[in-house]
């Protein structure tokens, strides 16, 4: 432990080693059948298989426990894994509210197997902690989003001191079709008229929008403030997730261990991969 100011309760206490992405979720990205079972980690510099996780002394034990009980434990048990996807399976047993083009909306509040409050709390906690500290990835690269004036209202919501402002909307979407067992840390989205951030854990994309210019249709789909607690199946989530990993794959330099793994996998599948070609990974 380390003595310091807990970023959530703002009290001086002993701080525990907090994860940006919970350990229980990163564990799902391991493949124990491989000689090196560690997740394939991609940054803008390198592609490496490593057990190293993104941590820092951010919270006291009481606040860390609050994060665990209010979101992390339930989400970790219900995200996608190789053999099942409890949240997705529960939704598909119910009748959707509406389906339009590539998006299908469900009333999360009407699905007993899904705890929407814990999903919302988890999503907001990840965005908040990414903004509250200057995190570093496996190669020392900076990971941080800036919530600006919205960081404090979200902190108070997570602490249970205040409701979530109407200027904040959280969308929760599941991919259609195949599900990628992986995760990427929060990053800025493409909207220009308001704050917009996104991150992904196995099977779930969380999108945070904040500002007075959030479109009415985005507010209507908020998983927290909509009466039905909306949760989506979205084709855009599928393509967005693939694009996010493709972007890193294209710029990351494979480590020697990863090169060896790619070659061994290619030999097993009888695939020829020209030197420097990572597109078949």
Give the strand order of the largest sheet, numbering strands 1, 2, ... along the chain. 6-7-14-10-13-12-11
Strand content: 25-35%
- CA radius of gyration is 19 Å
Shape annotation: globular
According to DSSP, the number of beta strands is 15
Order of helices and strands: EEHEEEHHEEHEEHEEEEHEHEH
- SS field, number of helical segments: 8
Let me know the largest β-sheet.
Answer: 7 strands, mixed
User: Mean of residue pLDDT?
Assistant: 87
Oligomer: single chain
Fraction of helical residues: 25-40%
Uncertain residue segments: 271-275
State the distance separating the first and last CA atoms.
40 Å
Structural class: alpha+beta
Estimate nothing, just give the exact number of structural domains. Answer: 1
Note down, in words, how this protein is organized.
Helix 2 crosses helix 4 (116-132) and helix 4 (116-132) packs across helix 5 (151-159). The chain has eight helices and 15 strands. It has one domain. Helix content is 33%, strand content 25%. It has helices at residues 23-27, 61-78, 86-92, 116-132, 151-159, 216-220, 235-251, 256-269; strands at 2-5, 12-19, 40-42, 46-49, 55-60, 98-100, 103-107, 135-136, 142-143, 168-175, 184-188, 195-201, 204-210, 230-234, 253-254. With 281 residues, it is α+β, with helices and mostly antiparallel strands. The strands form four sheets. It has a seven-stranded mixed beta sheet with strand order 6-7-14-10-13-12-11. A three-stranded antiparallel beta sheet has the order 1-2-5. A hairpin with a 3-residue loop joins strand 3 and strand 4 (46-49).
């Amino acid at each position: 432990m380390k003595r310091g100011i807990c970023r959530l309760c703002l009290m001086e206490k002993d701080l525990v080693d907090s994860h940006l992405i919970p350990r229980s979720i990163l564990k799902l990205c391991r493949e124990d059948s491989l000689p090196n079972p560690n997740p394939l980690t991609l940054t803008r510099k390198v592609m490496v298989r490593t057990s190293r996780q993104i941590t820092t002394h951010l919270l006291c034990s009481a606040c860390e426990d609050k994060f665990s009980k209010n979101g992390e434990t339930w989400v970790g048990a219900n995200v996608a894994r190789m053999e099942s996807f409890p949240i997705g399976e529960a939704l598909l047993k119910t009748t959707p509210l509406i389906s339009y083009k590539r998006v299908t909306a469900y009333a999360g509040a009407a699905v007993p197997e899904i705890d929407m409050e814990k999903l919302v709390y988890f999503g907001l906690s990840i965005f908040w902690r990414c903004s509250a500290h200057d995190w570093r990835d496996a190669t020392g690269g900076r990971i941080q989003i800036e919530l600006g004036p919205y960081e404090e209202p979200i902190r108070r919501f997570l602490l249970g001191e205040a409701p979530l402002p109407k200027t904040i909307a959280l969308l929760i979407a599941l991919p259609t079709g195949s599900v990628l067992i992986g995760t990427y840390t929060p990053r800025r989205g493409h909207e220009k008229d308001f704050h917009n951030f996104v991150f992904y854990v196995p099977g779930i994309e969380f999108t945070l929008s904040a500002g007075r210019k959030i479109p009415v249709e985005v507010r209507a789909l908020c998983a927290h403030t909509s009466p039905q607690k909306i949760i989506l199946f979205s084709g855009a989530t599928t393509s967005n997730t693939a694009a996010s990993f493709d972007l890193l794959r294209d710029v990351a330099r494979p480590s020697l261990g990863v090169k060896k793994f790619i070659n061994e996998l290619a030999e097993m599948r009888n695939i020829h991969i020209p030197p420097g070609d990572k597109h078949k990974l």
